[in-house]
User: What shape does this take?
Amino acid sequence: LNKKRIAYFHFTKEDTEARLAPGDELRLRLNSSAYADLSGSDEAGWSAVGHVSKITANEEVALELRGGQQLGPWDINHGFQVEFVWKSTSFDRMQAAMRTFAVDDTSVSGYLYHKLLGHDVEPQTIRSTVPKHFTAPNLPQLNHSQVYAVRKALSNPLCLIQGPPGTGKTVTSATIVYHLTRQNQGQVLVCAPSNIAVDQLAEKLHKTGLKVVRLSAKSREAVASSVDFLTLHHQVRHLDTPDHQELQKLMALKDELGELSHVDEKKFKQLQNSTERELLTAADVICTTCVGAGDPRLQNFRFKQVLVDESTQAAEPECLIPIMMGAKQMVLVGDHCQLGPVIMCKKAAKAGLHQSLFERLIFLGVRPVRLEVQYRMHPCLSEFPSQSFYDGSLQNGVTLNERLYAGIEFPWPRPDMPMFFLNSTGAEEISASGTSYLNRTEATNIEKLVTYFLKSGVKPYQVGIITPYEGQRAYICAVLQRQTTFSHKAYEEIEVASVDSFQGREKDFILLSCVRSNQNQGIGFLNDPRRLNVALTRAKYGLIICGNAKAKILKAL
Ligand SMILES: Nc1ncnc2c1ncn2[C@@H]1O[C@H](COP(=O)(O)OP(=O)(O)OP(=O)(O)O)[C@@H](O)[C@H]1O
Ligand SMILES: [Mg+2]
Assistant: This one.
């Protein structure tokens, strides 16, 4: 529509080797002879850079090419090469944060500086207004340990909050931020390593009535999220005041023509920058990923109060980015028994990059506030994770009755225990891309279960399907799309995602497809206890695991 060119192709790399995600930058190349044949000249080949705009149900990657593409090999469909465009942005920002920490003594308060380096330092407290009511508007009523966490976070310059899945870390974080904004210390910066975790928090903060801006990377602006309406680019686009009419006009023109004249483009950029700045300045809270905190658009902003959720999923230098913007008071929230940072380089991991700042601070003797009562899972679902991953310390804040889903007829083997393992010996196969795995029998079983749920009155948004393999994820989507028992839209609305992208989230019913089915090699990805922990702790009312009971680790279940 806006004259953008999109290239579709299959990406053939092992899941374990490299994964593409929306927003990744790639260069598409066609060598000179192929292009010369086409264009009748001997130009030095053709290439264009773009970003992954989506990955379709049959694992096809859509690459949106950048800039107005006039000439190109549009009719050729083979012989292309795809390369990763090495973007050092994340690493540059991490390095900049460390440099700032080393040389700039206004980067963090003196107290935090010493704490981060593990020096002995006199304990400090922060004078804060103690709220009359700890529970924030439209968030659940806090329990004692959650209130204690809020108190501690408000009155201390450094606070760590630790807790197993579902113990309300994110709810408590949102409540803390709500109260921090009332301390007259300026805007609060709220971060997490992953986009999904940031969205999760942004949504909760918005519910409390705070003015929230979700800043996302430019390359991700086209990627849909649950909090689109909070994103900076969305807010800029829909700012319908008389002051912003010129910007609106230029945007409409740009959409229509695909690009603007040189003069208009300059004007557009200028208006866009000033509007962005205006919106950012007016916010109570700015939410972005840790790396996003290094965005040039936040360059002149300072944040005395910073909260990082899922901080155990961030590498230490990553976590330092938001902190090095003037922090006096920082709150780190996390769980070291869920997924940690992904460090591709073994050498770097071994040298310590795999350890999060949160974990290091605990080793240094900082005592975290512990949350141990979970409000997500039916008690029968929390038992195994509690025993296996948390030494039995996880308690239930929800009762059996609160987690019995009334009004649906589902044949759980035991009505009081909404879970089961569906055994199948269907074979695992290599997926379409040639590099991931899928399991047709499991996918069919999953589809039957989904249809059964829908028939018994469960709504599509209540169901989540988790699988560790991209091949299976795509295959399940395709199988669901072929179904006709319910509308196309109903099946489409059911979220099918990887374990990693479900960290921090929950659904009423979860179906887990383990995929691997062989007696020797175990179950691949789920072998990591932290990934298994995340996979098993997303469901509120019911969990069904599809797998081959003979596969190694599943025997434990
Ligand atoms: N005090 C509470 N009372 C009632 N419900 C609560 C309470 N605290 C949290 N919850 C509910 O429990 C569920 C899990 O909360 P939340 O997502 O904050 O947990 P979490 O510790 O962040 O989990 P994860 O480790 O998976 O990120 C949510 O549905 C939330 O609304
Ligand atoms: Mg959470």
Notes: The longest strand covers residues 46-55. The two ends are 51 Å apart (CA to CA). The chain is about 35% helix and 20% strand.
